[in-house]
Structure formats: structure tokens, C-alpha cells
Amino acid sequence: MIRCQALRWGAAGQPLTPPVDFELLKGSLTAVIGANGSGKSSLLKVIAGLQKPLTGKVFLDVSRKGSLSFLPQQQHLDRQFPISLQELVAAGFWGSKQSPELRSQRLNTAMEDWCLSGLEQRPLMALSGGELQRALLARLSLAQTPLLLLDEPHAALDELGQSLLWKHIHQWHAEGRTMVVVCHDLSAVRQHIPHTLLIKSSGCLFGSSTELIHPQPQTQVA
Amino acid sequence: MLAAAQLWQPFHEFVFMRRALMGGLVLACSTAPLGVFLILRRMSLIGDAVAHGILPGAALGFWFAGLSLPALTLGGLGAGLSMAGLAAWITRRTGLREDASLAAIYPISLASGVLILGIAGKRLDLLHLLFGSALAVDGPTLTGMLWVSGVSLIAMVLIYKALLLDTLDPLFLQTVSRLGPLAHGVFLTLVVLNLVIGFQAIGALMVVGLMMLPAAASRFWSRRLPVLIAIAAMLGCLSVWLGLLLSFYYSLPSGPSIVLVAGGFYVLSVVFGPVHGLLCRPPLLTSQ
User: Fold this and answer.
1) Mean pLDDT of B254-263
2) Core-most of A40, A106, B46, B255, by most CB within 10 Å?
């Protein structure tokens, strides 16, 4: 589904890693982990075609427009924007040719699925971070694309929201969709995501999550 | 105090007042959505910069063709668009912030305009270009304004959805469609077009006021985008009407009267507006 060849990315003249080759298969579920500033979000943007790679190429099996969904980090959004939660979620129908009845039915289902019922008319500025994150995920779910790129989907979500998120990620995985997830929560990655791409300035490692991530001891040393 | 009859009588009696009113009203309607989107896109000052920037084009048009509406309009449009384009190009190539790059270009543009007017022999009053006079709207200018307003409104309806998403969440729009840059380009062209046609009527600087003041005021009255645009258009129309009446009865210059009435609405909105106005606490937000 995604094949990267001698890929380097980052700011001009400052590649974040040596050239990287990897291939993510159709229907795979992969986590991207690494330290702050290691280039996880930029890698997603390069794959989504929102940022140009410095060298190398990214091949996708699908067209970039309309076949992939990208969940950006929510600080990109202007919270003062005069739009309601429902209008934000309904933007997920962009380019869809479904009938208005089917759309409104799917919109209602998505609102229920992400526990947003009752918040439809709330303006963006009156939403909590978690509610906004669930709205962005609901928008993503409406698009039904074969490739999903999620940048920190668990950000701002409480325990309930996180379990909702993992439930949906497993469901999308079962539907055969390809997913790449940037995630900081290593124990969650170990538990939920089969494969991991670890980005380090010395190079990238790709492998099974349980091998790449060692369980963290829960004790703290003073 | 103005009696009820006096509110309509000057427009009934004088053709030039009727034309000024008509032109002002259509301009207020077409600049309202532009102003609201300029504010949402954090480009509120672009209107000001472009209004200065169109001067050399208008001056060149005047030099070659005299006081002809198409020449002034085409010149202004060319200068405004090339200024906005040049600023955007410098920003893209060098990373200079867009506002800095515009702020650097527009004095150059304004100064060249004044220089060209000087060489051309000062027959065109600079004050008229910058501050205009709504009362000088003639038949062809009015027709031009009607066309520009009609075209802008139709174009805004067509690009509304794309422009909204490009403003709120450009990354999302980029992943689902290629329309973002197109919508941005059309939008900027409409801004320049409205400023150019407006500067013939109420003056380059005044039309910026008519574009931005109602848009800024409307933010204190609603949280919904279509309502904001409707309120901005309504406040703009009211400003044109009351401003023209003021200028008629008290012999004031029409452009500044219109803008000052709009300014009055802005101040009232800041103080009394229900959405974060000074006198109103933010409404309680409870889930239904």
C-alpha cells in the first residue's frame, strides 16, 4: 500500500534521518513512534502528499486525493471559527455522491458512534479538547477511505474516549483498511498495534511492536 | 431628528442620491462576505494594503485614457493583483511573512502612484481617488458596480464550501481536493475587484472601511458563519443609507460619513454585542 524508497524528509538541508526504505502492506496497522522532533508528524504529511520529501519517493497504491484520510493534530484548528460541531463533522462527506437521506443517516450514526449526540449545534469554541478530537475522528470515519493516517489520535481523549478510539481502530483494521498511527503511548501501541516504525536520527527500525517496545517497569525511582 | 419622510425623500428627489444609494447597497452586500472571510483568514489588513496598491494602476490608466471607467478599473485591477501576487511570491520564495511582504510592497506601490499622478499633471485629484465621493456615481459606474457585486456574490456562493474548509482546516481540504489554492486565488481576486470598483464610488480607503467594519462588528452578534455574513451585509447597507442621509442633510463628505456610521455600529457592537461584547458575559454553555 505504501512503499518508501530512499526517503529523507524534514526541513530543507536538514534531513531528520538517513535515507529510509520500508513497505507497509495493504490492510496493515502500523504505529510510528519516536522522540519529540524526530519527524513522526512530518512523515505522515510526506505520505499524505502535504509536504515534499527531501530525497527519495513515496509510492501509494491509491490516488492521494479522495482515497486517503489524514487526521491532523487539532492545534491546527482555529477554535474561534464560527461553525458548529455538526458542520465540521459533515465536511467528511466532501466529494461523496451519496444521497442526502443516506448522508444524514450516516451522520447521525457517526455522531452516536463517537458519543457526540446532543452536541450537534455547539460552536467549536464551546467544545472541550476531547469533544473536538472525537468530532475530527467522526469526520474521518465518514470518508470511508482505504488509507488512514492518524497523527496522535488519542490526544486530549479521556479513558472512555481512548477505548472508543481503539475500538474503532480495530474495527477499521478488520475492514481491511491500511492505517498508520503516530502515537506516544507506548504501552497502548504494544497492546493494540501489531507493527511499529521507530524513527531515530541514526535510522529507522521496523518490526513487530512487542519486539521493538519493551514493557516499561511501573516503579519510579526517586 | 430626521422625520420618517426625510429618510427617503432625498433619494426620491435626486438621481445622484439614488445612484449613490444603489451603488453603496450592492457594494455593501458583496463586500460583506469578503470582509468576514478576510477576518477569519487573519488577513484583515490585506484590504488596506491592496487599497493603496491599486493607485499606480489607476494612475497609469488615467494617464493613458483619462477619466475612463474601464481604464481606471483595469489599471487598478492589474496593479492590485500583481501586488498581491508579488507579495505572495516573495513570501513563498524567501519565507518573509506575508504581512511584512505586503507592508513592504504597498508603500512602493502608493509612492509610484503618486509619482505617476504628479507626472501626469495633477489633473486627477489624489484626494478624490483615495477618499472618493459617492455622490459622483454616474450611470456607467453604477452599472459596473452592479456587475461586480453580482459576479462576486455568485462566485462566493460557488467557492463558499471550499473557501470555508481552506480557512478552517487547509490540511484536511488538501487531502480531499485540489480546490484550496483555486478558492484562495478567486477570493483574493474578488477582494481586489471590489476594492477597485469601490474606489470609484466612495474612494479606495473608504471602501476598505465598508468591507471591514461591518464584518468586524458582526462577530459580536453571532457564532454562525452565514448569520455573520448576513449581519455584516445588513450593517453595511444601513451604514450606506444613514451615511448618505447624514452627508445630504449636514453637507458632509459622503465617503467618510458612510464609514463613520459603520464605525459607530462597530463601537456599539463591541459594547452591547451578545457574543463577548463588553457588557455581556459569555452565554452559559450547557449541554442540551
Assistant:
1) 92
2) B255
User: What value, to the nearest 5°, has the Cα angle with vertex A143 and ends A138 and B157?
Assistant: 95
The verdict on a CB contact (< 8 Å) between A95 and B222 is no
| Domain assignment of residue B244, given as a range | 4-271
Output the average pLDDT for chain A.
Answer: 89
The residues near A59 (Cβ < 8 Å, ≥ 6 apart) are A2, A3, A4, A5
- Cβ-defined contact of A70 to B175 (cutoff 8 Å): yes
In terms of residue numbers, what domain contains A160? 2-76+143-212
Q: What angle do CA A119, A125, A126 make, to 5 degrees?
A: 40
Q: Letter for the amino acid at A212?
A: L
Q: Which three cell numbers stand for residue B171?
A: 490540511
CATH number at residue A172: 3.40.50.300
How near does any CA of chain B get to the CA of A106, in Å?
A: 19
Q: Is B56 left (phi over 0), alpha (psi -120 to 50) or beta?
A: alpha
pLDDT over threshold 80, residue A220: no
The CATH number covering residue B89 comes to: 1.10.3470.10
* B177/A94 Cβ within 8 A: yes
Q: What distance in Å separates the CA atoms of residue A56 and residue A215, rounded to the nearest whole number?
A: 34
Q: Has residue B287 got a pLDDT over 70?
A: no
Q: Over range B154-171, report the average pLDDT.
A: 93
Per residue in A128-158, pLDDT (tens digit) is 999 999 999 999 999 889 999 999 999 889 9
Confidence at residue A67, expressed as pLDDT on a 0 to 100 scale: 85
Tell me the whole-structure pTM to 2 decimals: 0.87
Tell whether A163 is covered by a domain. Answer: yes
Beta bridge partners of A31: A181, A196
Count of structural domains within chain B = 1
Among chain B residues, CA nearest to A118:
B288
Q: In Å, how far is B177's CA from the nearest CA of chain A?
A: 6
Interface A–B counts its CB contacts (< 8 A) at: 67
Is the pLDDT at B283 greater than 60, yes or no? no
Sort B170 into a burial class: Cβ within 10 Å, 0-12 / 13-18 / 19+.
middle
SS3 content of chain A, % helix, strand, coil (to 5): 40, 25, 35
